[in-house]
Design brief:
2 copies of one chain form a homodimer. By secondary structure, chain A is an alpha/beta fold. Chain A has 17 helices and 19 strands. The first copy, chain A, folds into 2 domains: 270 residues, Alpha-Beta Barrel (nicotinate phosphoribosyltransferase), CATH 3.20.140; 170 residues, Aldolase class I (TIM Barrel, Alpha-Beta Barrel). In chain A, the strands form 4 sheets. In chain A, strands 13-12-1-5-3-17-18 form a 7-stranded antiparallel beta sheet.
């Protein structure tokens, strides 16, 4: 087993996915602090439970893959304010001095239940359930959403792309268009968890033990006197399974030049791994290039396609001759979705179950559990969202991961999470893995939950 | 003047926008390293120039605001590989040992010319021009694009939102939906530079000296026995200019409850600053709430609107009664654009000017300068993109910021950059600031550049 940063990571060391200490106390919206100050000032310190769930599946999506759970736990269990932090808050906000003083000892001391990272999950289904004092539980909102929303979105998007590629490897190429460094790193991790085969992002490869992939750019070809010289130069340095980018000038001539180099490599006992095509029309280009390579007896040379690919474009290339895909912008930024609707809502406090009634923004009240229901073939049929007090036959998905503010579930490696996620996907009925079917994986509220929701709606709707 | 982290920042200290040391040597695509290894192996170490430019304005956009320039400079001038980095590369890649050894001393020793951060810029116009050895200049590509693409996209988007708000303050609320922590921080900074008035993001406020803003959530209201009790509790803790969220249950009743608290505050010599509405229909809701507040003689109480706002929705609220906006998801993720098409292309090497001819992916060859041309009123008319050797009457935009690998232009504060950006915007003709006009700010290639492009197209098109 390779020694990697990932493997060496102490499970309880409090080092998050991007290798930073996860203390992100200041990574919060000011209103978490103003609310907490008002709670303190008004002696509101009873227990409360919040659910983190995603309101709605984006168009065409049938499920989410929960991602970012391990980072969320590391975050919640490592919050602390330094004296310098408090001094900055004193200068920049109207927070009362008594509250500022209390921040010195502030930490999360409650309980978190979470679905295992990599779990298939539907809309309106808690990924995390946080119970603590009202102020501690409230405080986590902004950073938990920042962590979970992006990583879950990318894992879910990437898995759609993997499904469209039907077994052909997909490599993550998004660094240059990712929305910042964290997005590039965590997006590469989420994509790998969701079934991508590798990444071009060197830092992500090292941090998360993801296979690295990369060859050369058009500029490399342009910097030599002609394309064939560039190919020969690259193959000289990397004779073992190189990939050559063949469309700097003309894709047909590029394929012929690559074939020349492939034969030269063969004579030295090496093999050209693949050619890469980075311009449309990819379908026709791949057919043309395959024909040229086959005529040259280079059936073993693969064709790797890139160029603003997404799940729909990859799907449309089926039946042509692409053997691998590189996907950048559309995956790493989840274009055009950009953001999923993860929210964090109060569902219970010392006065009992709570509900929010703003139009289109309903929440399910009460402390709840999610149960997975299997069909006769052992595949995922649906989930049931039930009150914790109900008895449901099914596998509960929310497991206790933090107790009294301490992590009680060891941080899993990326590889464990990836294996688990891909096993989850394999247990979905076929039609749910289609990128264009409208067959959403569903969560159904239990009878008890429906009854509570109706009764609270009547009670608070009349306020 | 307030003492802030921003103000205290040593201009040459090599601390980037998010307060990290900017050494991001590993934040690169593997192909930068494989290309560099092949350049070394093939003795290709002449000088080369690359342009970083954005191919295309997104739909409806008329200009970009260049952002991320200061971070890009910090990045380029701080690259270094540690022994541990090199060891990781040795284990994970096929890079030749000779190249790995050379990474120990690798740094950027060339020249960078850049537009000043905050500059209005059009499509196909260099924001950065990098000249160094081929390998050094090539190496910067991935991280420079990661830095510039996101920050420029957000500054440009945010400025559209500010334009739509026509003077009403806009607050940045994107932390929970941003694509990671960096995105949240750098997006808040870019939005402030582009004219936003503040942010809810506490860390961004502290790092960049941005005014902080925040009040309370629906959960705060829900945690009290009724809405009026919640409002009174909040106003007790924050009597000085509080804002109250009035749509947890019913916006009309919420406005009446807020009015009660406003009068109670008035009796104690305080004022309610605003009410916040977070649900549609915002237009009708704002009119209704304004009427209620006016009937209560609370003309001074503002109406702050949130709820998935963007420039179009804000525009549609003109003529209604919103006095300030909070904008989150659509700004911080630049939904649905998600990514702009910033690229980094070889334009010249030791053999002369270079061109890439792939369909729809043409580049302007040669070492170039950008000149701003003003109209008779002193407003920006257009830019001219010319070869450096040409003489053009106009203000050159690319200034030398790095010489022999050393920063020669001090890092400017966020406030300086914001002032400059807003001054730039004020010098655009009115129609270019419209969010729905099709009046793109244009860059026109010079006669010399057109001639060179045509001649190289003929020469390389025939290859």
């Amino acid at each position: 087993m390779k020694t990697t940063k990932e493997n060496n990571k102490n499970f309880f060391s409090g080092i998050d996915s991007v290798g930073n200490t996860p203390n992100k106390a200041l990574l919060t919206d000011l209103y978490q602090l103003t609310m907490n100050a008002a709670y303190q000032d008004n002696a509101k310190e009873g227990k409360a439970t919040f659910d983190l769930f995603i309101r709605k599946l984006p168009k065409d999506w049938n499920y989410f893959i929960a991602c970012g759970i391990e980072d969320a736990i590391d975050y919640a269990t490592s919050i602390q304010f330094s004296d310098e932090d408090i001094e900055e808050l004193r200068k920049r906000t109207a927070l009362p001095e008594e509250y500022l003083q209390s921040l010195k000892g502030f930490k999360f001391e409650g309980e978190i239940c979470a679905v295992r990272e990599g779990t298939i999950i539907s809309e309106n289904t808690p990924l995390l359930r946080v119970t603590s004092t009202l102020s501690q539980a409230q405080f986590l909102e902004s950073a938990l959403l920042n962590i979970i929303n992006y990583q879950t979105m990318i894992a879910s998007k990437a898995n759609r792309i993997v499904n469209a590629a039907r077994g052909a490897p997909v490599i993550e190429f998004g660094l240059r268009r990712a929305q910042g460094e964290d997005a590039a790193l965590l997006g590469a991790r989420a994509s790998y968890i969701a079934g991508f085969s590798g990444t071009s992002n060197v830092k992500a490869g090292i941090e998360f033990d993801i296979p690295l992939s990369g060859t050369h750019a058009h500029s490399f070809v342009m910097s030599f006197k002609d394309e064939l010289s560039a190919f020969r130069a690259y193959a000289k340095t990397f004779p073992n399974n190189p990939t050559l980018l063949i469309d700097t000038y003309d894709v047909e001539q590029g394929a012929r030049n690559a074939a020349i180099v492939a034969h030269e490599l063969q004579e030295k006992g090496f093999k050209l791994k693949a050619v890469r095509i980075d311009s449309d029309p990819l379908a026709e280009n791949s057919d043309l290039v395959r024909k040229i390579l086959d005529e040259e007896n280079l059936q073993y040379v693969g064709i790797f396609a890139t160029n603003d690919l997404n799940e729909y474009k990859i799907n449309s290339l089926q039946g042509h001759h692409v053997s691998g895909y590189g996907v950048g912008t559309e995956n790493i930024t989840c274009k055009p979705v950009s953001a999923i609707s993860g929210v964090y809502k109060l569902v219970e406090d010392e006065d009992g179950a709570k509900i929010k009634l703003s139009k289109c923004k309903k929440t399910y009240p009460g402390k709840k559990q999610v149960y997975r229901i299997f069909d006769a073939d052992g595949l995922f049929d649906h989930d049931i969202l039930a009150l914790e007090s109900e008895t449901i036959e099914g596998a509960p998905l929310l497991e206790k991961v933090v107790e009294n503010g301490i992590r009680v579930s060891p941080r899993r490696s990326v590889h464990e999470i990836r294996d688990y996620a891909l096993h989850q996907v394999s247990l979905l009925p076929e039609e749910k893995r289609s990128i264009d079917s409208q067959s959403k994986y569903e969560t159904i509220p239990s009878a008890g939950l429906v009854a509570l929701t109706e009764s609270l709606s009547k009670q608070f709707g009349g306020q």
